[in-house]
Structures are given as structure tokens and as C-alpha cells.
Design goal:
Elements lengths: L4 H18 L6 H26 L2 H25 L10 H10 L2 H8 L13 H19 L4 H10 L4 H11 L2 H24 L5 H8 L3 H12 L41
């Protein structure tokens, strides 16, 4: 798949304000979900294109925060209206992105609102388990919340052993176990990514940001450093060094839909 990231960013940048304008707080649930998913996709595409085209880390992080903040607002909106939230796995990229940015307060607010029930008509059990585990790892790191229920569920549902091993290594702060499991998970991710890249049915706008960037991998590396693990000086594919530098620009809560509530902007 040949991707023109300049056009991808231009299209996403043009679409974002239009989508924001069309998000109606009083609108029908499914339309709200789809519109916010599209808005998040716009910001993730802008983030990826900016990093890959220009090597600019701070706009990359800021746009990932914009995706996460809009997803958080959607979850808050549904909480207040007592509506069924979207599946946990649908928020995986916004959550992984904000973890990768190192905006821990926003990551925790997204994580604490992830649905706790598997929606079997909308997501696979392992997708739910992995998204829930990533959220639990954030809350464990930030607030000391016990992640055992999520890790146990992941162990029951995961197809590969590397995913439970990754989660457990972060809880245990075991650098050696993390490095081994991360390498195994990267191999799994690479195989899946290259298969998608060769598929004629893959939609470019939904896949482009993930072609050369592994947001979950970046999130895991950021979590590992937060936990004090010793990360090998290795250049991992899909995890460029420019996506691992510290976030130094403050996210101001901009470019958001008029739903939910504002978030404090501290990191």
C-alpha cells in the first residue's frame, strides 16, 4: 500500500472542524459514536503524518492528546445520559496514543471510564481484554489500582503468551521479562501489520497511521519507563525514537467536540 501522508494530513485537517461542527450533544447515540470515532481518526492521522513527514514530536503528541480528550468527552457524555458506552476496544488507539504522549492525567481519565463489560456483538473477547488491561496498567501506575482482574482475563483470552507476559512484566517492573515479551509482541504486530498492508480490502484512512507506527508499542515503552524499567537501547520497528522523547508542550484541551466536560490540562 502506497500512502501519501501529505494528502492524508491535508484531508484529515480539513475534515476535523467539519466533524466537530456536526457533533450534536442531543444527537442519536450511534451517530455520536461514529462521529467521534471519525474525529479521533482525523487527529491520529494528523499526528502520524506530521511525525513521519517532518519528524516533529510535539505536534504528534498534541494531536494524540486531542484524540484522547474527545474520546474521554464521549465517555463522560454517555455516563451522564446513562447510555451504553462504545466497546472498550474502540478506544484503544486514543488510550494508547495519550499514554505514548506521556499525558498521564488524561490517560488515567480515559482508562477509568473504559467499559467494564465485554460487548460480544461488537468486539472480540481478546480485544476487550487487551484494551481493559492497558487501561488497568495506567490506573495501577498512576493510582495504585490492582490490575489483577484484567490481567487474569487477558491470560484466559490471549492467543499469544506475549501479551499477558508484557502486562505482568510491567506490574512486576521486570526489565528482562518486559524486553523478551516486547520483542515477541512486536513480531506478532509486524506480521499482522504487513498482512493488512497487502490486503486489497484495507481502508487507507483507517490504516495509514498504523502502517509505520505501533501506538500500543509506544504506549508500552512509555509505561515501562514510567515504571522504572531498564529499556534496551534498541531501535524497535514501528516505534521511532522521535515518538519516544518527552512531551514538553502543554495540551490546552483544544479542538474538542461540545460534549462531556473540560479536562484539567496538567500532565
Amino acid at each position: 500500500m502506497d500512502i501519501d501522508f501529505a494528502i492524508l494530513r491535508e484531508n484529515a485537517g480539513a475534515a476535523a472542524p467539519v466533524v466537530i461542527a456536526h457533533i450534536d450533544p442531543e444527537g442519536e447515540r450511534d451517530s455520536l459514536v461514529e462521529n467521534v470515532r471519525e474525529l479521533c481518526r482525523c487527529f491520529v492521522n494528523i499526528a502520524a503524518a506530521t511525525l513521519l513527514l517532518e519528524g516533529r514530536s510535539q505536534p504528534f503528541f498534541l494531536n494524540l492528546c486531542r484524540a484522547a480528550e474527545n474520546w474521554r468527552r464521549l465517555l463522560v457524555h454517555f455516563e451522564r445520559r446513562k447510555l451504553e458506552p462504545p466497546p472498550a476496544s474502540w478506544g484503544l488507539t486514543p488510550l494508547a496514543g495519550v499514554i505514548a504522549a506521556g499525558h498521564w492525567s488524561l490517560a488515567a481519565e480515559v482508562a477509568e471510564r473504559l467499559p467494564v463489560q465485554w460487548q460480544k456483538e461488537e468486539e472480540y473477547a481478546v480485544e476487550f481484554a487487551w484494551a481493559s488491561t492497558l487501561g488497568a496498567l495506567v490506573l495501577h501506575t498512576q493510582r495504585g489500582v490492582d490490575p489483577s482482574p484484567q490481567l487474569d482475563n487477558l491470560a484466559r483470552t490471549a492467543r499469544e503468551n506475549c501479551w499477558p507476559a508484557l502486562a505482568q512484566s510491567l506490574v512486576d517492573a521486570d526489565s528482562s521479562a518486559f524486553a523478551s515479551a516486547f520483542s515477541d509482541a512486536l513480531a506478532v504486530h509486524e506480521a499482522r501489520t504487513e498482512t493488512r498492508a497487502r490486503s486489497f480490502t484495507t481502508r487507507e484512512d483507517q490504516f495509514a497511521a498504523h502502517r509505520y507506527l505501533w501506538f500500543e508499542g509506544l504506549a508500552l515503552l512509555r509505561l515501562a519507563r514510567k515504571r522504572g524499567l531498564d529499556i534496551p537501547n534498541v531501535r524497535y520497528r514501528y516505534c521511532p525514537p522521535l515518538a519516544q522523547v518527552p512531551m514538553t508542550e502543554r495540551y490546552q484541551g483544544d479542538w474538542v467536540a461540545s460534549i462531556g466536560e473540560a479536562i484539567a490540562t496538567q500532565r
